[in-house]
Amino acid sequence: MRRFVAMAVFAALGLNGCSSSPDPVRQDRSQTVRPNAAHTASSSLTTEQARRRQINIDGVNVSILEAGTGDPVIFVHGVVTTSNIFPKYLNAYSPDYRGIAVDLRGYGDSDKPEAGFTIDQFSKDLIKLADALHLDKPIWVGVSMGGMILQRLALDNPSRVRALVLVSTTDGAMVLDKDIPSIGTPRDYREVSKNMIVESFPHGTDPSIYRPLLNRIPTWNATVIRQALTSMSQFNTHGQLSRITVPTLIMVGAKDDVATPAIAKGIQDQIHGAQLVQFDTGHFMMAEDPDRFRTVLGDFLKSLNRNLSF
To answer: What digits encode the pLDDT tens for the residues 76-92?
Structure first.
C-alpha cells in the first residue's frame, strides 16, 4: 500500500469499558458460503463450507460466518474487506477450534445504519456479539483495521480475551487517504476502495489474487468507509499495549509499507512475550501466502493448548 502512515505518541488516555446489556435476539438466516478464489491457491487448505447467519445487536443485524468445532476464534476484517477473506481458515483448526468471521456493521451482509463506523463502536459491537454467542473469552484475530479494533477491545475488556492475533496493523494513526471528507462527494467510494486494495499488494501481483476483494466493494458505502478511515486516522494505542498480558501473535509483511515491520516490532516490544512472524508479502499475506498463514496461525493456536496442559 503506497500510502501515508502517521504514528503519534500522546499521553495515556482514560479508557472506558463496555457496559453490560441483555443478550440480543438471535436471527438465524443460514446459508453456506464457498471459499473464494483468493484462498484457493493451495489444495492443502481445507474446503469445508462455512455457514452464514445474522445476529441482532441493538437493532443492527451483524452477519457472521461459522465453521468447525472447538474453542472459538473470532476473525475481524479491515477497512476495505469483509468476512469473505477468512472462509478457508474457519474450519482449518477443527476439532480444537471453531472459526467465526464477522462482517462489521456497514460491511458485507451486515446492516448499514446511518452511523457508528468507528473503531470504538466496532469494538463494542464485537463484545456484544460475543455476549450473544455466549462466548466468554474467545481468541481474536484482526487484520489491518481489525487489528486496531482488537487492540482497543483488549485494552477496554481484558477479561474477554484469551489470546490475540494482530495482522498487518499499527498502534498509531493509519492514514490511507489524503482527502477523506471528499469520499462520496465528489469522489466515488468504489474507486477509492479499489485503489486501496490494489495498492496493498506488491507491484506485479496477479490480479486474480485480489479480484475477489474488489468484488466485495459494493457491500459497503461512502459513509462507512469515510467514517472508518477517519477513525483510523485518529487511532492511538502507542505506549498503552504493555497492559495486554494475554498470549499475542503479530504477523507482518516485509513488503508492507503501511503496517511496516518496524511498526510490528514496536508493538511486539510493548506486549510481554508477544511473538512476531514476518512474511515475504505485502499487506494481505492471507491472500498472497495462504499456506504459511494457516501454518503460523495453527502453530500459535496449538501453543495455547500446550500451555493449558502444564
So the answer is: 999 999 999 999 999 99
Nearest to 197 by CA among 43, 38, 7, 41: 38
**Three cell numbers, residue 143:** 487484520
Asked whether the bond before 95 is cis by omega within 30 degrees of 0, the reply is: yes
What CATH number labels 22-308?
A: 3.40.50.1820
Cross-strand pairs, 32:
51
The identity of residue 126, as a single letter, is L
Interatomic CA distance for residues 23 and 11, integer angstroms: 36
The Cα angle at residue 147 between residues 98 and 305, in degrees rounded to 5: 40
In the chain, where are the structural domains located? 22-308
Cα(121)–Cα(119) distance, integer angstroms: 6
Per DSSP, the three-state class of 36 is coil
- Which segments of the chain have a pLDDT < 50? 2, 5-29, 36-47, 309-310
pLDDT tens string 165-205: 999 999 999 999 999 999 999 999 999 999 999 999 999 99
Query: From residue 286, how far is each of 157, 160, 259, 291 by CA, in Å?
Result: 27, 25, 15, 8
What is the residue type of 149? Answer: I
